Amino acid sequence: MDEYALIMRHEDGTKIASPEQMQIWMKQTMDWIGGIAAKNKFVSGTGLLFDGAKVVGHGGIVTDGPFGEIKETIGGLIVVKAASVEEAIEFAKGCPVLQGDGNTMEVRRIAKNDGTH
Fold it and tell me: pTM for this structure?
């Protein structure tokens, strides 16, 4: 069984939901994760904050950011166990972030520490 990162991408970080809508989405997200955990397939996950974020570039140059105002931001990720990429895709299809127009889920297999990857 492999592990996959399901990365939540928001097309437009400038769109700000109301606190009520955020609460609804958080409950939907927790229910979605709970469904994966009930199958013993949830490994870990987290949201990503913009406050205090920094970008380190070539030559060690550090700048503020990334910012929510930038198009296509990463809002968070979860790691799941799956027998195939198709199973991981099925988990991703249930993510509430896909309710947002233009939002996407990126599915990436995590490299194993086996000397091959």
Answer: 0.84
